[in-house]
Amino acid sequence: MNQSARRGSALGAPSKQIEYTAQRREYWDDYAVNFERWNGPRGYYQRKLIEMYRFLVPPGSRVLEIGCARGDLLAALEPAYGVGIDFSPKMIERAREKYPHLTFFVQDAHQLDAGGPFDYLILSDLVNDLWDVQRVLEVLRRHAHPGTRIGINFYSRLWEIPRRIAEKLGLARKQLPQNWLTAEDVANLLRLADFEPIRSSCEVLCPVRMPLLDTLCNRYLVRIWPFRWFGITNLMIARPAPAPPADPEPVVSVIVPARNEEGNIAQIFDRVPQMGAGTELIFVEGNSSDDTYGAIEREIARRRDPRVKLFRQRGKGKGDAVRLGFAEASGDVLMILDADLSVPPEDLPRFYQAWRSGKGEFINGVRLVYPMEDGAMRPLNFLGNKFFSLAFTWLLSQSIKDTLCGTKVLGRAQYELIAANRAYFGEIDPFGDFDLIFGAAKYHLKFVDLPVRYRERVYGETNIRRWRHGWLLLRMAALAMRRIKFV
User: Please, is 313 exposed, middle or buried when counting C-beta atoms within 10 Å of its C-beta (0-12, 13-18, 19+)?
Assistant: First the structure.
């Protein structure tokens, strides 16, 4: 007996699953015929789900939705290639009539075969209705590539009794028996199916349109303890668990924004190590008052390394320099190294290995774990960084212990996704750190904090201005509230 058969036996005889499926197919076929009658009271809730998933899924993605019903959610995501699966023939018939530009199949999710791979896998209000959730997730895993994200929302068990009351009052159609899984149950099932949960949240505190009150509840209160425990639906985002890399080693591009760092240039050339299939070193010189540009030119001429590039920054701020460097990079792994050498270049291979192994997709250096050298960071700056690490961890729903450490690593494909959708946040970040952090959070890259030993700079002066940049950090926090946390 194979593994799937053994698990099927554990969940009940095959005839029981067949009976379970047939009962639900009949239920949803009837729902499709009387859709307007029963879905009317759920209209506001459905619109909130569409808003939620439109925030998660960028237009032009390859999207597979399981349990798609009439295809309204799938169509709202504006996929470049969209496939909807449902086991109700009548639901699929109506989906095909309504959205002929999308692809719909009548299939049981337990025996899914939809091609792929897809960028996003969506299960909206489905897992509580499935016979074998683990089996469905395992089948879905075969439709994913390493960068795929799976989005699952499911009713909170706290709403079981209010739902029953609504059914008795005729405000909702009577449901068939449900699984009523908790967020911990779903996270465990995801791990068993070789997915890795990234974040979860409670959504939709007020399920009906009530001017002002619904906005207060669904945008703000549902994000805050203790109100968040009363959200109607749980939302969970996961990615395929990382596998040992099979692709050839990539070229690594190290971007070095350099302004007034003439005395550090030779050391950068000496100390940046070779990684992967080779290291490409890209300097972006920021209109220095010393001879930084000339120092880089002289080292290039002396060493004759074909994988070194030099550009003069056209705009202002480190963020502008980083964006120029990334645009000119040819490697599939993109790193940032501050030219002040406060983070040792010898640590870069550890960042590469964390990315290459799949442990994380956005590797962020952390200066606040190990003791620092005397003079590396002023005490008030240290306290400010600690405060903002807590604030942004809460705002982004992923751990980020140091927002302003200059050393960050991500893949080219992930950066291009962030860059293509940069207009959502705007370009108000001169550091460049939050441009990447916010984009990585919005598209649910897996964050990994990597501790480093922070050194005192040995040449030049810091470009950080405590009060001006502290005020800017507060503005970044406010932006994260508006565009990520409270949406």
Answer: buried
Domains of the chain (ranges plus CATH)? 3-240 (3.40.50.150), 252-485 (3.90.550.10)
Q: What is the pLDDT of residues 316-374, one digit of tens each?
A: 888 999 999 999 999 999 999 999 999 999 999 999 999 999 999 999 999 888 887 77
CA 283 to chain CA mean position, Å: 29
How far apart, in whole angstroms, are the C-alpha atoms of residue 294 and residue 429?
28
pTM, 2 dp: 0.87
The SS3 call for residue 293 is helix
Distance (Å, whole) CA 183 – CA 187: 6
Return d(Cα 313, Cα 283) in angstroms, integer. Answer: 10
Residue 428 makes CB contacts below 8 A (sequence gap 6+) with: 475, 479
Cis peptide bond prior to 117, omega within 30° of 0: yes
In angstroms, the CA 70 to CA 96 distance is: 8
**Strands of 447-451's sheet, edge to edge?**
308-312, 279-285, 252-258, 333-336, 408-411, 362-366, 447-451
Alpha carbon distance 222, 264 (integer Å): 49
Burial class (CB in 10 A: 0-12, 13-18, 19+), 343: buried
Count of CB atoms situated within 10 Å of the CB of 75: 19
